[in-house]
Description:
Elements: H1 8-17, H2 34-53, H3 65-87
Amino acid sequence: MTGIKRSPTQVRKFLKSMGMKCIKVGSLPSKADQDEQEDYKEKKLEPRLNEAKEGKRAVFLLMPLTLLWELFSVLFGVLRDFSLSHRAGVTASMF
């Protein structure tokens, strides 16, 4: 678009300086049966979601443990960085 080219190393270094990190991409299971998934969606999932919209059923979304751990890690990191940045200007004479 602009004609500027960046190598993967330069991009990686820039993203790391912004606090981001490289992660592996996920993949679809090799033995996934598309017909079976579509059948489940049409015959079981969608009717249950419609019942939930009508107020006849409660639907709970369970997040994978790894996603919860990642969320906790990010939140803890932000809180830790916030508390450390505020302590940087505090000296012993202030207490």
